[in-house]
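INPUT
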Amino acid sequence: MKKNGLLALGAFLLASTAAYAADPGVSDTEIKIGDVNIMTGPASFIGRAVSVGSKIAAAEINEAGGVNGRKITIVTEDDGYVPARSFQALTKLIEVDGIFALNGTSGTANVLAMMPLIEENNLPTVVTTAPNELVYNPVRPSVFTVGASYSDAFYAQLKYIHENGEPANPVYGLIRQDDDFGGAVEAGYDRAVKEFGVKDGLRIRFKKGTANFAAEVAQMKQAGVNVLANGGIIAGAANILGEARKLSMDLQVASVWSEDMPPSVNLSAPAGYDYLVADYVALSGPAIDAFLEKAKKYASDEEIGAINRYTYVTYVGLKALAEAMGQCGQDLTRACTVEKLRGLKDFDTQGISAPLSFDNPEQLSGTAVAVYQLNAAEKTFKALTDFADY
Amino acid sequence: MDFLLLLLASGLVSGAAYGLIAMGFALIFKSTGVVNFAQGELVMLTAYISFTLYSTFELSFFPLMLATIPISMAIGLVLERLFIRPMLGEPIFAIVMVTVGLAVVLRGITIMIWGPDPYNFGAGIPAEVVLVGGVPFYPAQLYLIGALAVLTAAGWAFLRFSRMGIAMRAVAANETAALLVGISVSRIHAVAWMLSAAIASIAGVLFAANFKLAPDLWFQGLRSFPAVILGGMDSVIGSAVAGLVIGVIENLFQGYVGQGLREISGFIVIVIVLMVRPFGLFGSRDIERV
Amino acid sequence: MRTGHFKERTAQLVALSDSKVVWSFAGLLLALVLAAPFVIGNYQVTLLVSAMIAIVGAVGLNMLTGTTGLISLGQAGFLAVGAYTNAILMMDHGWPVWLSMPAAGVVSALVSLLVGVPSLRLKGLYLAITTLAFAFIINHVILYAEWLTHGPNGIFVSGATVMGVDLQRGKALYYLTFGITVLVVFAALNIQRSRVGRAWMAIRDHDIAARVMGVDLLRYKLYAFMVSSFIVGIAGALISLQIRFVNIDVFALILSIEALAIIILGGLGSIAGAILGAIFLSLLPEAIRLFFDVFADTNSSFYTTYVYEIRGITYGIVIIAFLRLKPEGLIGLWRDVRKYWSNWPLAY
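OUTPUT
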């Protein structure tokens, strides 16, 4: 009996070490989580913010003892927003650094370029910065997406405008980038316009990198647009609003969630439009205040200055990943993590986003958006609706 | 009619931006035969420096330019002495590639010092809309068009009447002959870079005032290439005019045909024009002897 | 110094090399490259695959710019055409990969005719910008022809299997790329030694004189465009196989400038130079990263905040310094080394 017991114990120990040896990135003391971020180039304000989010989440988890005693280590690689480099970066993270799971995933084209590698290695991946339909449709077994689509975000804002304070003779207009991001924006606009039965004044496409929107806005004015779905981002969006103000256009504006970042607000506010944004994370309120308190503890002043919505989504993503890893106990494998993520239901994110549940076929969550309005004079946001699914 | 006027107005504005940047290119090419692939980055760097001056001293537009232009000229001089001068006599390809490397370095330095966030840059220009002939303009847009007009006139006068300008034309025509006549070619090269940097700073400040200051400003350099080519690479005035032409054509296309055809229209135009006039509208024909 | 080497036949004159030593060293190099995947890790294998794809692209561009003297900034467009053709034929029409890859080259060559015909009278930078214009136009067309190219969504490329071996994974991809690289390099070397190659060099050196001597400029310039784009199209198809996803963003215009940097850094006009340049610039970011990992003080906060920018700036500085010290490029460096070796202990 005793011998059998010893044999069983020995077999169990061997089996568990075999399980440890099976998946890279896990040791008795640490778990390696990878980040492929945009750390160089003009889009690096995204990558910087993501980095800070990962750092704060990891520091908070480690201070509370880590995941079942294992500390989280973040390994970051830069891809400069170039998909070919994302592929290269992920290869390095997997082969050389041996990460266990992936949290930061850069932009849409970038995460799509990394998909074959992710699928090949069954890498648990949480996508929070690129919630594009192409990412979860078709669904990949180990990929979990957090975030509403641009389509839902725009539909939510246009619905709010339609129900509260639509101008007397509404003419809707859309200006969007001519890529997949723009296509998603148009999908939301299309849905809204068809459902509300309002006049679809004009739909304009522009190439990424356009700075001068005078011709486009002139077309808008000619079509008599007074409700604008503004698919421009950052400087582009600000220039569109600036041109509209120059032509003295009266507009209700729905915007991309990149416009709730402080630098974007600084650019757009002078045009004086109190535009709307819809986002799947909170922008103000007690949840964010609590987060910033935490940030002061773990991050430097410079890093706190880089915080924006991308920080919040990355924080939420890593916390969800850690929760699933924690549920696996000592026997931590990629397969187990994926399974626990699939079963994640109503994971509370302390109000930063709606509770996360991945138990659906697309492994998609956080699709609830809240609509906010900018007070252009004071550069603050007011929440108009609660988190809701559209 | 209104719509057409609006399009023409916006065409002049974006054309002026292209023209200013193109003039910088053309000036360097005319005097040194080098295509400065770092021109866009120079525009960006001088714009950021001006932004720092503006934020620190709260200057209005003309004092700001009076402060920025000498600094830009100094930067142009430093770049020329450090990077281009040692390459004198080397194959032209190598020098062009050095400017490409320089572009990479300048981009990195800009983001390193000022960060990737975009900024509003008022440049001390008033912000209320003014009406010119019934068409609304921002003062910054008028300043841009005005700057192009002033610089084009100044450039023409400089090249036609001043000693330095005539010397530059001599160096452009035949460097060896210019040396024989006693012109200091290396000084002309330095002056060309300094003037080009000065034009770049004006272009940068006004572009940022109109279209925001962001670390992807350098891309406008690449987008101004068609203006350089259309005008003829060694014609400074030609580049300015071609810039306006391309700006207007782009906006007319976008307004009447639409659907993101803005950039493509500019390129199609230059392909067609080059088929007829292979050296651009105002460029000088290369006379080759067998 | 070698003596007693007499050329008795024309073939000996145009042979690649008449020295057994050269051939055996070449063979040794090939053997090393063949054996490499068994010695180095997976990540290094993917680096080498990227370097070899860069070699194919560089050799193609060198034919156009280095040998014929036609500067082209449109490489990003031809790469995109090759990659998209390969992807569309493989995924939407089910062609096998050994058919779709040559087809990618052919389509790319045909597109280059469209670019070449308007450009025949142009010289120097005018030609470069016209090719840049075409790259923009190709970009635009790919984005808007959604019925053919899936527009901005991109195409996933998979299923490149030959006789049961998946050509897109690890070692199989390495050997496929290696085989294609060797073929392309030999083809380029042979074309350069042939009538067509001599005509191209005549066009580069002085096209009016070449015309006078009977070289048909129209025909040979178009040949140059077509052959060069065929090779670049195949490089694009290889990229689509490696990254397994094609999209406009993968072929940004910056690739054209990088391609030009490769052949200038390697030495304009020389195929060996193109190879060296491609390897150098592909592995440079990796080398810089390793350099900083070893030598930089990783704890200094200046480094950690700016590490990525510092690497980017170093990349530019290396290019500038290299051109300053050796404007003829890497092939000039190689020739100096060779001369030093064969002349030692004499100076010349």
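end of record. The interface with chain A takes residues 2-3, 6-7, 9-11, 13-14, 17, 108, 111, 115-120, 127, 129, 136-138, 207, 210-212, 214-216, 219-220, 250-251, 254-255, 258-260, 262-263 of chain B (CB under 8 Å).
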